[in-house]
């Protein structure tokens, strides 16, 4: 079973949003962790400069994460609204 981990800022963002939206994002992340989609998936973007890094869109929210294919770990490091994503 794949393990889903998250950085503190990503977890804080999930806690601050509407509970149904947060549950939907968590469920979708679990689904992606269990069956990583191909890089050409319509909703999944490969992040340049981030090894095994991806970004997936959930309506107006963006989730950036890495997947370690050897240990089945998905590390979510950003959950942000569309306008605030990618600003590190």
Q: If you had to describe this structure to a student in words, what would you say it looks like?
A:
By secondary structure, this protein is an alpha+beta fold. It has a single domain (3-82), classed as RelE-like (YaeB-like fold, 2-Layer Sandwich). The protein is built from two helices and five strands, in the order E-H-H-E-E-E-E. The chain has a five-stranded mixed beta sheet. It is globular and about 30 Å long. The model has no long low-confidence stretch (mean pLDDT 79).
What are the salient characteristics of this protein?
globular; five-stranded mixed sheet; alpha+beta; YaeB-like fold; 28% helix; 88 residues
In summary, what is this structure?
This protein is of the alpha+beta class and 88 residues long. The protein has two helices and five strands; from the N terminus they run βααββββ. The chain starts with a strand and ends in a 7-residue tail after the last strand.
Radius of gyration: 12 Å
Query: Which CATH class is shown?
Result: Alpha Beta
Query: Strand order of the main beta sheet, please?
Result: 1-5-4-3-2
Q: What is the CATH architecture descriptor?
A: 2-Layer Sandwich
Order of helices and strands: EHHEEEE
Q: CATH topology, which one?
A: YaeB-like fold
Spans of at least 5 consecutive residues whose pLDDT stays below 50 are none
Q: What is the topological layout?
A:
Layout: E1 3-6, H1 8-16, H2 19-34, E2 44-46, E3 53-58, E4 61-68, E5 73-81
